[in-house]
Amino acid sequence: MRMNTGHIGAVVRKEVRDYRRSRSVVGTMTVLPLIFLVEPTLVILRLSPSTSAGAVQKSVGSVFLLLLIAPAIIPAVIATYSVVGEREQGTLEPLLTTPLRREELLLGKAVAAIVPAIGIAYLLFAFIEVIARIFARNAAIAPALWAGPHVLAEILFAPLIAGWSIWVCIGISARSSDVRVAQQLGTLASLPPLAVVALISFDVFTPSVTLAVVFALVLLTADVALWRIVSAMFDRERLITGAKALRP
Amino acid sequence: MVDHLTKRFGGRTAFEDVSFTVTSGEVFGFLGPNGAGKTTTVRTLGTLVAPTSGSAVVAGIPLTADNGTEIRQRISIMPENPGLYVRLTVVENLELFAGLYGLRNHGPRIDQALEAVNLTARARDACGSLSKGLRQRVGLARALLNDPAVMFLDEPTSGLDPVAAREVHDLINGLRQRGVTVFLTTHRLEEAERLCHRVAILNTTLRSVGRTDELRQSLFRRSLVVETVAPLDAPDGVFSRTAAVESWRSDGTATYMLTVADPRTAAPAVTRALVAAGADVLSISEPHHSLEDVYLKLIDEDPEAPPA
């Protein structure tokens, strides 16, 4: 199947314009990152100069876990609204009367949700590193955060975890009939990849470049599979009429 | 062309065994009471809903699941609720749809569409700030963007005040003059009578299709209404002896309803007979049957119609 990039671009532009003018979306996108900054900042500032290397490493793990929760949670608000919200405001039917394919519609919505999520995640990481370099009393924390595997993990996992969260939430949105229910379910459903991150962060698995790459590949495969599954779940007829399509 | 098309949702039949043809450049009215299956028919022909059985050709393309994208490229549908993004401006709404129809250099097309619906001055306004009538106009502009071969308008004047409805009528008349094929669903009969070349009346099954005058002729026997100044002393003696009159009945104190084969030949014969009988004739006329009469008669005859 050939994807029409013009269609995807049109959906992305519309989504970004719409979000920018939504007070609730802008508010959520502003407040949530600030919340995610508080705990990592406190963890860094609490470390004394005499804290052991092992304790510093554990702190680094918890900081990363908190930083990687952000890309899972932040796009969930947008993604869960994506289909059920359009349905509620009556804009889905006109959209579906155009030559737009469901895969293009969903990909456009996913791109519009993932770009700000990744941007915010990277900004949070950069901000925490700056705090560690300027304000941390323990000199070891800043280099520990900036270590190769950690930077690689942040670069790889932020978009992949956001991708997982977005596809799960769009899938929930496509099957829900109420925005609030979709948003509650979406927030919970976006968390499973973080369990693995938690295991790595707290040294249950030893963090290494190999482990990061393997986990990233697994997440990438899951993201692509989820896009396909969610696209297949997108039943034009059910979304318009409320009744499942029965083929002759 | 629609051939024996049926749509069922589980055990509920939305419409059944519907067949009709719409010719290029025609404004075709699709009438029926609420729940008759009009909107589902539009959604089916617009590839939003799959038919249960039957076939159709839309804008020259067979209606199949594989042809959905191609059909949607050549048609446009304006749903009853225009479904605009209220935080976006009029132009931004149209830009989205221009992108989805793959229109290159869409600026002039958007300008033309806005001009056609007389909305150029409100182009930069947020759709949320527009009245319902103006939103319908934006919906029409959106439906014009891709220069469709067939335009489906689903209850375009629903909920509009008379002035706004009239503006929409003018726009549809404009489309008619431009030769756009329009499939108009409505339950406003005067709207259909004013705008449509032909109408179909649906109540789950198709009750009738044709020009409104044809429907009147087929449904109502030809008749004359005779009014005299005073009641006739022996009306049967007057009317039964007139060859052109098939039957008659009194319809008031000095009003008589005659069933005739041809009103043009019967009227002079009846006039002569009345004058010969010494009656003072007030008027002899053909009764006017509106589309509403046709509609109500067809719906009344429908055994599936809900009781009024």
Question: How is the secondary structure organized here?
Answer:
The complex is a heterodimer of chains A (248) and B (308).
Chain A: H1 5-20, H2 23-46, H3 53-81, H4 84-89, H5 92-96, H6 102-135, H7 141-145, H8 148-175, H9 179-189, H10 192-201, H11 209-233, H12 236-241
Chain B: E1 2-9, E2 12-20, E3 27-31, H1 38-45, E4 53-58, E5 61-62, H2 68-74, E6 75-78, H3 90-100, H4 107-116, H5 132-144, E7 150-154, H6 162-177, E8 181-186, H7 189-195, E9 198-203, E10 205-210, H8 212-219, E11 223-228, H9 235-239, E12 245-250, E13 255-260, H10 263-276, E14 281-285, H11 291-301
Parallel strand pairs in B: 3-8, 3-9, 6-7, 7-8
Antiparallel strand pairs in B: 1-2, 1-4, 4-5, 9-10, 11-13, 11-14, 12-13
Structure description:
The complex is a heterodimer of chains A (248) and B (308). Chain A has helices at residues 5-20, 23-46, 53-81, 84-89, 92-96, 102-135, 141-145, 148-175, 179-189, 192-201, 209-233, 236-241. Chain A has 248 residues and is an all-alpha fold. Chain A has one domain (5-241). Chain A is elongated and about 65 Å long. The two termini of chain A are 24 Å apart. In chain B, strands 6-7-8-3-9-10 form a six-stranded mixed beta sheet, with helices on both faces. A four-stranded antiparallel beta sheet of chain B has the order 2-1-4-5, covered by helices on one side. Chain B has a four-stranded antiparallel beta sheet with strand order 12-13-11-14, covered by helices on one side. With 308 residues, chain B is α/β, with parallel strands linked by helices. Chain B has helices at 38-45, 68-74, 90-100, 107-116, 132-144, 162-177, 189-195, 212-219, 235-239, 263-276, 291-301; strands at residues 2-9, 12-20, 27-31, 53-58, 61-62, 75-78, 150-154, 181-186, 198-203, 205-210, 223-228, 245-250, 255-260, 281-285. In chain B, helix 4 crosses helix 5, helix 5 (132-144) runs parallel beside helix 6 and helix 8 (212-219) crosses helix 11. Classes of the chains: A mainly alpha (248), B alpha/beta (308). The interface between A and B is large, with 34 and 40 residues.
